Structure formats: C-alpha cells, structure tokens
Amino acid sequence: MISRIFSHIEEGVLNALISAMTLLVFAEVIARFFFNTGFLWIQELTLTLCGWFVLFGMSYGVKVGAHIGVDAFVTKLNKKKRKITALIAVVICLIYCVMFLLGSWDYLAKMYQVGVPMEDIDLPHFLVSQLDPDNAWEYLRIDVEEPAVPLWMSQSILLIGFSLLSWRFIELAIAIIRNQTDGFKFADEAKESMHLIDQEADTSVTHKQGDK
C-alpha cells in the first residue's frame, strides 16, 4: 500500500517537473523570438528542474525497467547463478550510491556552511518578509537583504535522488532473495520499436477496412 502511494507521488512529481520545464522553455522561446528579450532566472530554473527530473527519476527508472543494460552474458547462466550475479550487481550499485551520498553530503555541507546562493533566482518577497534576519541566516543561510535561493536547497536533490535510488536497489535485492524476480529489468528498445511498428500496422489495416 505504502509502495503504491509512493509510486503515485513519484509519477506526480516527475510529471510536474517535466511540465514545468516545458512551460518555462516555451515562455523563454516566445520572449526571445517575439519580444527580443529573455529571463536569466528561467534558464537557471530550467537547468535546476532538469537536474531534479534526472536525479529523482533514477529510482523510478529502476522500478519500471527504463534503464538500458547489457544482459547477453547473464541470460546464458542457470537460475541459481543468475540470482547470485544479480545480487552482486545490486551490491555494487548500492556501494556506488553510498559513495555518491557521502560525496553529496560533504558538498552540500560546505555549500551550507559558506552560504553560497544561486545566481539569478530569488525567494518570493512575501516569504522573505516573514523571516527573522538572524534566524534566516543561521538556520537556512538566507540573506534577507539579498534573498537568493541557497545553493544547498536547490541541489539537495543529490541526497534525495540517491537515497531513493538506494531504496529501490534494496527493494530489488529483497525481491531477488525472495525469488520474486531474477534481476534487473532493462529497457529493450528493439522490442519496443517492433511493438510500435506492429501497432502502426494494425492501425493502418483498421483504417483501410473502415474506408472500404
């Protein structure tokens, strides 16, 4: 139940991020080509949202099998060896995640300590006006006189993304141990392309029959 709710939240966040990026890029193109102007904050916000989309989507990609992988060797193994190989691969992936989590923590801790702000994105005035200047800087690293969004906030997705990815790998390891799956699910672009071709062919046949 909890996993299903979280999956809906994941999908909702990813849809919101890609929709926001699309609207921002559309607004920037209209501003540049029709009004000969632009907004620096749109560029920085779009890049930030893109980073959030990629890092937040990593874990979702593991869940739905959207990542590309090579399994030519693994498919030739028997069931037991395939299970062991899959567990080894998951452990390596978890080690990779832990390394990134530690590096991200150190990086964000330094950004927080120094109080590095984003270049072109400021916090809304109505929100900043509610903050106590001393507490805002001490706890959030926000300068109310120049209320730019702190870099540690915008890049906190490093911790969030790799934490979610670690959780997905742990879920996968448990599923492998329980024999619920034999390993990673990978995207098969050739198979998907053939499926799309078959669908297009069926649609064409249906239209021709309808015309007759």
TrEMBL record:
Annotated Tripartite ATP-independent periplasmic transporters DctQ component domain residues: 21-114
Membrane topology: Multi-pass membrane protein
Subcellular location: Cell inner membrane
Keyword set, alphabetical order: Cell inner membrane, Cell membrane, Membrane, Transmembrane, Transmembrane helix, Transport
Biological processes, Gene Ontology terms: C4-dicarboxylate transport
GO molecular function, one term: transmembrane transporter activity
Coiled coil region boundaries: none
InterPro entries the UniProt entry points to: DctQ, TRAP_DctQ
Pfam families xref list: DctQ
Keyword Nucleotide-binding (UniProt): no
DNA-binding among keywords: no
GO cellular component: plasma membrane
Residue spans crossing the bilayer: 12-35, 41-63, 84-105, 157-177
Subcellular location, principal: membrane
Family per record: Belongs to the TRAP transporter small permease family.
Function: Part of the tripartite ATP-independent periplasmic (TRAP) transport system.
Subunit structure: The complex comprises the extracytoplasmic solute receptor protein and the two transmembrane proteins.
Descriptive protein name: TRAP transporter small permease protein
Organism, as annotated: Shewanella colwelliana
Taxonomic path: Bacteria, Pseudomonadati, Pseudomonadota, Gammaproteobacteria, Alteromonadales
